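Worked example 3 (structure in, sequence out).
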C-alpha cells in the first residue's frame, strides 16, 4: 500500500472547514431506517376505530331502516284493513247484493250512491286516506272517491286481478309529487301506500277495496326515530372505542419508550453514546446508497494512544472516563451529517459521506488537535491524551466499506509506528 503523510498546508487550513454540526447518533439512525414505533399505533387505532364506528353505524342503519320500512308497511296494511273492514261492516247492506240464486256480489245503486259517498268520506277522513275505490268481482269500479263513474269499463289491472285470484291483500309503498286528501288539503312529496284488499263473503272473493293512504306523517315520525337510533348507536360505539383508545394510547406510549430504549441499546455503544460498529457500518452503507450519484467519501479510524497504560496506571474507571470524554470531543468536532461510532476498545470510526480526501484530512487534523487540547481532570490524569488517526477514501460505488476500513486501519498503524499523535493517509491499495 502507498502511505502518504499529512501535508502541512492541509493542516494549516483545517480551521477553514465549516463549523462542526450535529453528528448522527442512534436516534438519527432510527429516523434514517424509518422505524415504525408504537407511537403511531394509537393514531392507526383511532383511524380504524373511526372507520369501524362509521361502518357499523352504517350497517346498523341499513338494518334499522329495513325494519322501520317494514313497520311502516305493516302499519299501513293494518290501517287499510281496519278501514276496509269498518266500511264493509257499516255499508254491508248497501254494497252487497244477493241474487235469487244466493250468489253475493258487490254493487251500488245510483240512488244510494250520494248518501253512501257522504258517509264513506266522513268515515275515511281521520285515517289519512286520500283515495278509495270499490271494485266488483270483474275488476270494474263500483265506487270511487276520485269521481270515477261506477260501471265504467276499464282495462284489467293486474294488481286487482292478483287479489281477486288469490284472495290475498297487496300493498305497494311509494312517493307521489302531490296528493289531495278528502278534506281538500294538498301535500307535496308525499309518502303513500297503495293497498288492494279482498272483499270476501263465505270464503269467496267478491270484490276489492283499493285504498290509497298518505303515510307521510308516520314516515316522518319513524324517520326521526331512525335518526335518533343511529345517533345513539354512534355515540355508544364512539364511547366504547374511546374507552379502549385512551388505555391503548398510554400503553403504546410506554411501549414506544421501552422500544426506543431497546433500540438505543441495540444501536449505540452504552459507554460513549456513539453508534456501535454494526449500526455505524449499516447506516454508512445505506447513506451511501441514498447518495449513490456521488462516488466519494472517506473513512477515518481514531485510536487513543497509550490507552492500556492509562488503564493500568489509573484504573478502568479512569479509562472509561477518557473514552467518554474523547467520544464527546470527537462528536463535537464533526460536521453535520458525519457519522461516528465506537469500533472496538479504544478505537473510533468516523465516516464522512461525500467528503474528498483533502477535506477528510482537514477533519482528521481538527479531531487530533481537539483531543490534544482537552483536559482530562475528571479522569485523574496528570498528562494530555492524544490520538493517532488513519484515513482512507471510500469509493462506495465500486467497493465495500470494509475495504476502506482496512486501508484506514493501515494508516492508523502507520501513525502509531511513526510516533503517534499524528494523521496518516492510505490513498489506495498497492
Amino acid at each position: 500500500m502507498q502511505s502518504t503523510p499529512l501535508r502541512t498546508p492541509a493542516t494549516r487550513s483545517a480551521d477553514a472547514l465549516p463549523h462542526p454540526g450535529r453528528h448522527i447518533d442512534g436516534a438519527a439512525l432510527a429516523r434514517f431506517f424509518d422505524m415504525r414505533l408504537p407511537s403511531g399505533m394509537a393514531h392507526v387505532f383511532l383511524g380504524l376505530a373511526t372507520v369501524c364506528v362509521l361502518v357499523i353505524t352504517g350497517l346498523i342503519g341499513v338494518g334499522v331502516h329495513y325494519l322501520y320500512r317494514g313497520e311502516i308497511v305493516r302499519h299501513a296494511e293494518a290501517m287499510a284493513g281496519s278501514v276496509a273492514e269498518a266500511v264493509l261492516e257499516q255499508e254491508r247492506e248497501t254494497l252487497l247484493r244477493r241474487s235469487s240464486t244466493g250468489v253475493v256480489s258487490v254493487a251500488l245503486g245510483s240512488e244510494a250512491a250520494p248518501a253512501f259517498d257522504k258517509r264513506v268520506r266522513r268515515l275515511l277522513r281521520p285515517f289519512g286516506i286520500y283515495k278509495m275505490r270499490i271494485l266488483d268481482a270483474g275488476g270494474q269500479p263500483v265506487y270511487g272517491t276520485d269521481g270515477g263513474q261506477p260501471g265504467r269499463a276499464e282495462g284489467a289491472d293486474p294488481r286487482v286481478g292478483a287479489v281477486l285470484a288469490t284472495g290475498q291483500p297487496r300493498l305497494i309503498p311509494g312517493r307521489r309529487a302531490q296528493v289531495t286528501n278528502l278534506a281538500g288539503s294538498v301535500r307535496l312529496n308525499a309518502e303513500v301506500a297503495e293497498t288492494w284488499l279482498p272483499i270476501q263473503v263465505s270464503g269467496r272473493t267478491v270484490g276489492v277495496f283499493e285504498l290509497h293512504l298518505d303515510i307521510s306523517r308516520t314516515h316522518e315520525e319513524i324517520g326521526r326515530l331512525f335518526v335518533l337510533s343511529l345517533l345513539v348507536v354512534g355515540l355508544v360505539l364512539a364511547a366504547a372505542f374511546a374507552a379502549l383508545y385512551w388505555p391503548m394510547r398510554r400503553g403504546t406510549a410506554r411501549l414506544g419508550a421501552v422500544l426506543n430504549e431497546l433500540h438505543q441499546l441495540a444501536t449505540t455503544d452504552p459507554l460513549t453514546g456513539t453508534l456501535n460498529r454494526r449500526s455505524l457500518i449499516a447506516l454508512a452503507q445505506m447513506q451511501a446508497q441514498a447518495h449513490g450519484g456521488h462516488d466519494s467519501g472517506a473513512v477515518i479510524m481514531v485510536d487513543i494512544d497509550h490507552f492500556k497504560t492509562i488503564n493500568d496506571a489509573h484504573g478502568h474507571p479512569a479509562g472509561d472516563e477518557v473514552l467518554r470524554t474523547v467520544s464527546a470531543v470527537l462528536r463535537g468536532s464533526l460536521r453535520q451529517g458525519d457519522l461516528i461510532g465506537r469500533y472496538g476498545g479504544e478505537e473510533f470510526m468516523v465516516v464522512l459521506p461525500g467528503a474528498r480526501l483533502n477535506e477528510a484530512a482537514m477533519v482528521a487534523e481538527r479531531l487530533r488537535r481537539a483531543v490534544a487540547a482537552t483536559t482530562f481532570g475528571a479522569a485523574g490524569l496528570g498528562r494530555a491524551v492524544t490520538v493517532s488517526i488513519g484515513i482512507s477514501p471510500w469509493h462506495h460505488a465500486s467497493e465495500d466499506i470494509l475495504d476502506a476500513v482496512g486501508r484506514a486501519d493501515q494508516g492508523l498503524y502507520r501513525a502509531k509506528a511513526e510516533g503517534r499523535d499524528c494523521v496518516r493517509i492510505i490513498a489506495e491499495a498497492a
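Notes: The longest strand covers residues 186-201. Residues 1-27, 29-35 have pLDDT under 50 and may be disordered.
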